[in-house]
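Intended use. Records such as the ABC transporter ATP-binding protein entry shown here are meant for training and evaluating sequence-to-structure methods. They are not intended to support clinical decisions.
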Amino acid sequence: MSLTLTDITLTYPDGDTRLTALDRVTLDVPRGTTTAVIGPSGSGKSSLLAVAATLVAPDSGTVTIDGTPASGLSRGRLAELRRHRIGIVFQQPNLLPALTAAEQLQVMAHVTGRKPAEARRKALKLLDAVGLADHAGRRPHQLSGGQRQRVNIARALMNDPTVLLVDEPTSALDHDRGAAVVGLITRLTHQQATATVLVTHDQSHLTAVDDVVAIRDGRLHEPDPVLEPNAWGGAEE
């Protein structure tokens, strides 16, 4: 397994008590597969992603990235783990306005000390993989919303992560562009052999993923095939 969450509990202060965001969550995501986590707002999706990214430490339980337990690591070691093992696709691309599509990716490689010429080759290869080979020199204002999200995905893969965490990638896209982005994520997951977690409230594209789990009140459940038919490919839109 490349990503394993074991018995994760996470609470937040809530007045004189504590609010449980994740309640004994266990999740295994093998390399080369995409697991979608679905659920309504406030169900714990964002908390699960933050813990998996090692951005938030759980109250109890263990996050294991590619065989390395995150618990007990220093801040510096955790930062190094994120740089080299984890790619994050944020809900909003947050691209730097002054940089071209290729430069957005090259900045990521600079952080890990990759040589400029090597970084340029890698960036162009990834932009080609996401269908933007002809847009490498364009800046964010020259790209559509779907194209900016594709740059966002390519940027997350720039340092060859073993774990890819994706937060609501279709929230600002129409149905067709959203389907294309989810299809792209699953294809790249197989090609790059990442363990991918796709957090979403949109069930209309889930036939493309390898596994689906639902989260409610901080607990993981099997999706309800009646209430959540798209997770099983059982209903047409």
